[in-house]
Design brief:
It is built from 21 helices and 2 strands. It is mostly helical. It has one domain (2-455, 490-531). The protein has a two-stranded antiparallel sheet. Helix 3 runs antiparallel to helix 4, helix 3 (86-103) runs antiparallel to helix 20 and helix 17 packs antiparallel against helix 19 (416-444).
Length: 535
């Protein structure tokens, strides 16, 4: 029942926000605190799941609930976790809570905080359900629940191009969902069951090779849109760039993982012969995405857009690991999922902090010298960047390294020469990843302050205070005008307590997982071996 409680808490919180404001939580500040409390309670339940989980049997589905949902068509409300899904459940609960902490002092522009809070809570329900569902139709329902809240978050609180970004996001994902449903139903009807644990235990028996090839193609395309895999990635940069900070963090940190998790949890075990047939093509598209994402990052002049394109490259390593069809490669994919969620979530938080203080994420306008004008912020950005480029000792290193190792020794039935070529190309992509992050640091943090970062950064105003005057506006009569930003001595805008609270856990976990990868690999290794029929 623990997962029912974990999803009931945010769902009840979202429903409570539909009560009239005059009777329940009057004022935006109260609503923001309520959202933080509800997501915090959900995180506590997730922590209790972590403590109740038996780490000696990580390949076994645990904390399970299995009830009849629609007996006439054999649908069941079946939830549970193993070592594959448990880390993603914890990541979802953590990132959602950190986003609510961040909004305590940094709500997105556009108001309507009550609606935003309700949408983020519904989004959390859908994400948690996706990672715990063990019935194909239930999985699909939760998979779809996520789409509408994120669409509304982008279109209501996004930037100037939010409408086009939101439309592209919803159209791509709905098309992918249609293909996904067709593939899952094809397997379910052929096998005579929709139970994911039973289907996984069969390892494709009872489903012909032709059906498996077709079903994997349909499911793979559906999941690839979410991953995102080149060339189905084009919705991602716009969605990331236009979304508010909390939307970008959840989109990069958790939503992208729905695609790669689905490939591992659903597509691989349900259609193993189809996976073997399509694996070289999946590997090819993965390495194209790695190179394409890196080159696109080198061409970007916007911080958020650069981080968005970096996700295409990083998730390419995850897809390459899956394509090897080996325990090493799939472990690399699961490790890369968590590492990317932690590091890229932190990067988007920091990009939001830069925009809050200087009003832009355009690298040309920002200029250099951030280490001089905002040393703490610049130091955190440097840490997140070197973690993302894969520095040994930080979380980003292990997923990429293990993916390359998996490509060097792919499944015995796959063409090894082809995958060794993929490994070489992916290694070039890793070098390019280092290049664009080092270019970012050289452009933004180092050198002489020569852009808007040379000005006094804007300290987030206390709640209830008057907004800052537009540049060039006259101050109200009877007030002392502030010194012109162009002539004021540069000083760092203080990093607020909610910012520290939101960023510190991500920094700590990036170090923990990077220095002790065994903490995560010990959880995922046994269920990954079971996925391939091993002990």
């Amino acid at each position: 029942m623990i997962f029912v409680l974990m999803m009931a808490i945010p769902l009840c919180g979202a429903l409570a926000l539909m009560a009239p404001p005059a009777r329940f939580l009057p004022g935006d500040a109260a609503v923001r605190r309520f959202g933080a409390a509800i997501s915090g309670a959900t995180l506590l339940v997730a922590v209790s799941a972590l403590t109740a989980f038996d780490y000696g049997a990580t390949s076994t589905v645990q904390l399970e609930i299995d009830r009849a949902w629609a007996p006439a068509i054999d649908l069941r409300f079946h939830l549970g976790v193993d070592g594959i899904s448990l880390p993603l459940v914890a990541l979802t609960a953590l990132l959602t809570f950190l986003c609510f902490l961040y909004t305590l002092k940094h709500p997105p522009a556009g108001g309507r905080i009550r609606l935003l809070t309700a949408l983020l809570l519904v989004l959390e329900v859908g994400l948690l359900g996706t990672f715990t569902a063990l019935d194909l139709i239930l999985f699909f329902v939760f998979f779809e629940v996520v789409l509408i809240p994120m669409y509304v978050v982008i279109i209501l609180w996004g930037g100037p191009g939010r409408r086009a970004a939101a439309y592209k996001f919803i159209l791509y994902t709905l098309l992918g969902s249609g293909l996904l449903l067709a593939g899952m139903l094809l397997v379910g009807v052929t096998a005579g069951t929709l139970d994911m644990t039973e289907l996984a235990a069969r390892h494709g028996s009872g489903v012909t090779r032709g059906v498996q090839i077709t079903a994997f193609a349909l499911m793979g395309l559906g999941f690839a849109v979410k991953a995102p895999m080149w060339p189905l990635h084009t919705w991602l940069p716009d969605a990331h760039t236009e979304a508010p900070t909390v939307g970008s963090v959840l989109l990069a940190g958790v939503l992208l993982k729905m695609g790669t998790y689905g490939l591992i949890r659903v597509a691989l075990p349900l259609a193993p012969e189809g996976a073997e047939f399509w694996a070289p093509w999946l590997g090819l598209l993965a390495v194209i995405g790695i190179i394409y994402g890196s080159l696109a990052c080198l061409a970007q002049r916007d911080l958020k857009r650069m981080i968005a394109y970096s996700s295409v490259g990083h998730m390419g390593f995850v897809l390459l690991g899956i394509a090897t069809l080996t325990p090493v490669g799939v472990n690399a994919a699961l490790f890369g999922n968590i590492a990317h969620g932690l590091i890229t979530g932190l990067l988007f938080f920091l990009a939001g902090a830069v925009k809050d203080r200087w009003g832009t994420t355009d690298l040309t306008a920002l200029g250099g010298g951030l280490l001089g004008t905002a040393p703490r912020l610049a130091s955190l950005l440097t840490f997140a960047s070197i973690a993302s480029l894969g520095l040994p000792g930080l979380a980003g290193f292990w997923g990429e390294m293990l993916a390359l190792l998996g490509a060097y020794r792919p499944h015995a039935d796959l063409p090894r020469e082809t995958f060794v070529t993929f490994m070489v190309v992916a290694a070039i992509g890793a070098v390019l990843t280092a290049a664009y992050f080092l270019r970012l640091l050289a452009t933004l943090t180092h050198g002489r302050a020569d852009g808007v970062t040379a000005r006094r950064p804007v300290t987030p105003a206390p709640e209830g205070s008057a907004p800052p005057l537009p540049e060039g506006s006259a101050a109200p009569a009877g007030t002392e005008p502030e010194a012109s930003p162009a002539h004021a001595p540069a000083r760092e805008a203080a990093i607020t307590l909610p910012e520290y609270a939101a960023w510190t856990p991500l920094i700590a976990l990036t170090l923990l997982v990077g220095l002790w990868p065994k903490t995560l690999l010990d959880v995922t290794t046994a269920p990954v071996r079971a996925l391939f029929g091993g002990g």
